[in-house]
User: Which sequence fits this backbone?
């Protein structure tokens, strides 16, 4: 496997910084990244253990626990972490002299890279601290709800966003409708359920769609539902917090007007970087942040007021995207799906285990959930999570918000090994006892 670009050690980078080279850190540190072999398709590469072992060597691993909880945030690859550390030192050294003169230009480059990766215009992207900031602002600043309207969210949506949607309904005297999806669903099931909800509530004005659910990794057919919604004059806010990098896609494929993203999950940036997308021409429906002014509704940046934030994290975005793109979004998605299959295919044959999430391949991601059959209370699932951790040395997380009850979420990362998933399978077999 070849490596691209020159690699500066952290010491070399800091030496440059120490020498007082006043420039953006991206000029100082070039990243290296694993290079997928030429002419290998993603599904074949997904099984190439030598390649993924090499990918794993770019990450610092913790010993002592098998961590299968990578849905919270993503580990930075070492070249990204080095860039971040160098940027932190540079900002801390240069302070306002850098921030007031050069940071705007460097942050604009990060925005440009995000826009390019999502195949939209830089003017349509605003960097935020996280997807929550992006989605909360979209919901709170949505302008069109009246008392005659309804809005729709689902049990698979991120809990805080369900609450914010209901808050919006309540604050306008409108009706908030919660759609309950089955614990396991196919793309067609999900589309049919949304269509029925649209029929049942002809006064729907706004819906929240979650591209990949944080509960069990279910993929929602955002493009198809959005097409249907648009036909009926319903607006769509898309939560892509968990999906970007876990799935390989661009915004034009989804066709949504507004979306929120995280870069600190599957794109592998430092913690504290999210993004807001607002398609040009849609801004009149989402008001500026309270007190901001945008009389022509042309400046997406006025929809957020982030103020002072982590400069170094934003500066490390190009390095994170370099690494992600060198690895290849499609390769990453295929490997993560493959790793999920290593445990779900076995778990599906165990009568005492219920696997949750997608019922067909298009509805699956690398993330999935399970529980002991007929044991869906929070107390039962908490006990299961503890057992996995204490008896088997496997760390997972309990999720509680599905309409069908609680579950254990299992999320491998690109550096997770098949052996670690074999240990999970062996633990699942023994959970019967
Ligand atoms: C689907 C989904 N939406 C929103 C969020 C919130 O992300 P953040 O806390 O980074 O804003 C998460 C985090 O896990 C998520 O999985």
Assistant:
């Amino acid at each position: 496997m070849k490596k691209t670009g020159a690699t500066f050690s952290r010491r070399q980078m800091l030496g440059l910084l120490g020498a007082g080279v006043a420039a953006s850190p991206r000029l100082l540190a070039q990243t290296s990244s694993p290079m997928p072999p030429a002419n290998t398709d993603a599904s074949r590469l997904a099984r190439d253990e030598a390649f993924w072992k090499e990918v794993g060597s770019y990450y610092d691993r913790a010993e002592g626990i098998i961590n299968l909880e990578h849905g919270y945030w993503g580990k930075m690859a070492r070249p990204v972490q080095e860039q971040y550390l160098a940027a932190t030192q540079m900002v801390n050294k240069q302070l306002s002299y850098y921030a007031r003169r050069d940071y705007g230009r460097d942050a604009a480059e990060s925005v440009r890279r995000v826009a390019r990766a999502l195949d939209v215009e830089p003017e349509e992207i605003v960097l935020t601290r996280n997807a929550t900031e992006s989605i909360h602002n979209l919901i709170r600043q949505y302008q069109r709800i009246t008392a005659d309207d309804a809005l729709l969210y689902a049990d698979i949506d991120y809990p805080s966003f369900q609450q914010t949607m209901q808050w919006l309904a309540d604050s306008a005297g409108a009706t908030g409708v919660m759609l309950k999806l089955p614990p396991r669903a196919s793309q067609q099931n999900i589309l049919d359920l949304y269509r029925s909800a649209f029929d049942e509530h002809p006064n729907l004005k706004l819906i929240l769609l979650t591209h990949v659910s944080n509960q069990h990794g279910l993929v929602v057919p955002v493009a198809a539902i959005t097409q249907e919604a648009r036909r009926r004059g319903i607006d769509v806010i898309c939560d892509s917090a968990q999906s970007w990098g876990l799935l390989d896609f661009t915004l034009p494929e989804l066709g949504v007007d507004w979306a929120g993203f995280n870069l600190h999950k599957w794109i592998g940036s430092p913690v504290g970087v999210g993004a807001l997308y607002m398609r040009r021409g849609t801004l009149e429906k989402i008001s500026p942040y309270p007190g901001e002014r945008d009389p022509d509704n042309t400046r997406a940046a006025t929809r957020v007021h982030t103020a002072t934030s982590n400069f170094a994290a934003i500066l490390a975005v190009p390095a994170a995207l370099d690494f992600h793109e060198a690895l290849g979004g499609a390769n990453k998605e295929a490997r993560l799906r493959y790793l999920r299959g290593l445990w779900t295919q076995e778990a599906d044959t165990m009568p005492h285990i219920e696997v949750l999430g997608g019922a067909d391949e298009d509805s699956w991601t690398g993330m999935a959930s399970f529980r002991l059959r007929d044991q869906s209370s929070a107390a039962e699932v908490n006990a299961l999570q503890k057992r996995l951790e204490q008896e088997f040395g496997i760390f997972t997380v309990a999720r509680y918000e599905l309409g069908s009850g609680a579950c254990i979420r299992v999320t491998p990362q690109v550096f997770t090994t098949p052996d670690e998933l074999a240990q999970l399978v062996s633990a699942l077999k023994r959970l019967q006892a």
